[in-house]
Amino acid sequence: MLLTTLGGGVAQTEKRVNENDLGGDLVLSYSITDPLSISLTGSYDHFYFKDVATPEEGYVIADWLNISPICTYKGDRASISAGLKFSDVWKDRDFKDSPESGCYKGRRLFPQLNVSYELIEEALVTSAFLTGGQKFNSYASLLETNHFFPAEASHNYFSTLADASVNTFDAGISFSGRIKSVFQYKLDGGYAKHLNTLVDGVRVDNFIETRPLLKYSMADYNLIYADFNGSWRSDRIDASALLRVQKMNMKRVTASVLPAPRFVGSADITYNWNRRIFAGVSAEWSTSRRAEIPDYIPELNPNKQVTLYVNVPGWVDLGVNTEFKVTNKFSLWLKGGNLLNKVVMRNFLIAEKGPYVTAGVCLVL
Questions:
Q1: 268-298 b/e with 16+ CB inside 10 Å = b?
Q2: Range 89-111 average pLDDT
Q3: pLDDT band for position 199 (50/70/90)?
């Protein structure tokens, strides 16, 4: 067994893909009676991708369509929304490294159900939901998830990543409400099944350099999750907290997967004097992640195969902040972060080391 721990912070941001997107949304609704209505929502996106570095290599054209007829009943305390979603992705690909055309095909019809009931008037609502759908992994969506999308993965975008991902179903329950007028909360949890969905992967070319690289994987997995979102608002104190607990059970994977962390979250609290001077404390955290690379052949002993474990340590980013509101339209702010001097790895390719200070101005027009 070999173990390497990430923390060097290698990032590559060379752009290889030129993306054009044309689309639109449609919403139609009709009220049959006072509590009963029907609606039809739809969306369409047309994508065109070209390899900037080697334009002679080819292109990818993809289309993504969603249509959802929904029937909704809204009573005094209960509401039911039920329908179906037609969701499909199709594409035309002409790329020399990947001559096959078409894309991953899963189911195209998905249930859409949401049932809610107000247990305590204006204080507690419980609901159950069931949903699903397809989506196309556009290059822009990858950059939104990972701003430091590496150059070598950009080339793989045409051959592997430009594909459809399917959320077969996502079922769960939630509780939301408030206590008096100062505390609001939402607690939900569920179980979801994902097919051909992008997950973080790891590739190690040279163990001597100890520099694992990002290699996205298309995987099938089941996800169990629970989320808590709470906020406190009073005259003097504003506070909020987010916590997510999750577990990925992998079913199919094409590369060495780096599963999502088991616990992630954030919290902050701010005190103010007359809504002019603000001072607060914040924290973000994540538990560790580990990828397993079987049958790895180290250069120091090429005749032996071992299992290589790539570890992303857990981290905590503790910070303080202050703001001075000069006028209702102009303020100055200052923030200090990573006060515990940890190696913060929001993106496992980027190691944020040491405390930092950020200053700025806020102008409301």
A1: bebebeeeeebebebbbbbeebebebeebeb
A2: 64
A3: confident
Q: How many CB atoms lie within 10 A of CB 153?
A: 20
Cβ contacts of 130 within 8 Å, gap of 6 or more: 111, 112, 113, 114, 169, 170, 171
Residues making up the chain, counted from first to last: 365
**Tokens standing for 206?**
């040279």
Q: What is the CA radius of gyration of the chain?
A: 24
Q: Measured between alpha carbons, how far is residue 322 from residues 111, 357, 360 in Å?
A: 47, 12, 11
Q: Beta 2-5 vs 306-312: how paired, if at all?
A: parallel
pTM of the shown model: 0.83
Alpha helices in 118-183 (DSSP H): 139-145, 151-156
- Count helices and strands in the chain by DSSP H and E runs: 2, 22
Q: DSSP states of 48-67 as a string?
A: EEEESS-GGGEEEEEEEEEE
